Predict the structure.
Amino acid sequence: MSDQPLPDLPPFPPGFRFGVSTAAYQIEGAVAEDGRGPSIWDTFAHTPGRIRDGHTGDIACDHYHRWESDLDLIARLGAGAYRFSIAWPRIQPTGSGPANQAGLDFYDRLVDGLAARGIDQVVTLFHWDLPQALQDEGGWANRDTAMRFGEYAELVGERLGDRVKLWITLNEPYIHFALGHVQGIHAPGLTMLTDQLPVVHHLLLGHGLAVSALRRTSSAPVTLANNHSPVWPASDSEEDRTAAIIYDMVQNHLFADPVLLGEYPPGYELLTTADVDSIIMEGDLEVISQPIQALGVNYYNPSRIAAPPEGDPLPFVRLPIDGYPMTAFDWPVVPDGLRELLVGLKDRYGDKLPPIWITESGCSWPDLDDRFRIDYIAGDLRAVHSAIQAGVAVHGYCTWSLMDNFEWAEGFHQRFGLVHVDFDTQARTPRRSFEWYRQICTTAAPRPDLQGDPTG
Ligand code: FCB
């Protein structure tokens, strides 16, 4: 396989951005430095049995100390955009009150360091690391958390809003909700089987309040990054098709319809036994559905859904997808699923769909000679290209991830990086995919003016 010629790609539209993504808790380390408070991921990772082999993000890639050489790597890659996240507990150690200047200073240096290297800053405000003090007050189940998130967004916008090129309010609210609050395999480790709607609604309200705050403090476009997945019913039976409709609603529409259409999708009431009017207050949907200038899409694989076995508390079950190559994480590689979902988003939202950025996609693959990853990214990019040909506006692609990092419940066992990291020595070694992607970044789309509006 290794000897076959490397994949070529069709040309992308001028100005299309190729980039790389990371997230704060997965790379930064330095969890107790410069006034950072604890987040729910610190607590969760330090709870025995939660993370494979007891790994934690205490040190991770030590990016907090190595950020300059890491930015040099991104520059060497020729990437036009770098998506990173801000750790809320560095800015507000207990989730409210005045900003911790040392925390803001770190991201200020990062933003300037990117500008100096000609790389667009794509900044996520919430990549799951909620300040623990807010979780102690109920976390996203508490409406107050949405208000706090708006205030935090304002503090960040005031400091960085003149330079950031694209804002992302929330990363994958669906995954944070489902894995963190229903299945309990991510922080905060809750298993709420009823009354899930408050968490969903407050995440969305937090998004809306952050949009308002960023509109006051920055002229850069704003988006949120949803994890979308085409849903395939396991059979034609009515039971499996009904289960697939419910699954599609929660994964694909629950966090997109309120933002893009100003209403919840049919069936959302299933998520609570309480009166929905006690959760969704008057005016909330207007706040949530303020215009966003881009939609972030994270894609990994489709979902094959069947009716649940008798006695299962959830109304659907995810089944394995056979017949495709598998990543080291045992995720099926289905590049056409990305085209399918992009075209599906256009069909559903029509003119209400803003330009799309692929804010994540990638695969776990450990080898330095990672032809597997090259083929994975090439498959993604061909899918994006055919969606563009089909009339979907896609303006950027940030692969997950720049370098191996702390992969949540899997600890350091899944390696998603273009760059290999030796977690004992912190040595960074670019994989074969780094060199291939460098050629893509530097040749596949002309880069006329990286200072322009990345959604334009
Ligand atoms: C996504 C997360 C990202 C990373 C990838 C593999 O769900 O947003 O942080 O862990 O999965």
In short: Residues 197-217 form the longest helix (21 residues). The mean pLDDT is 96.
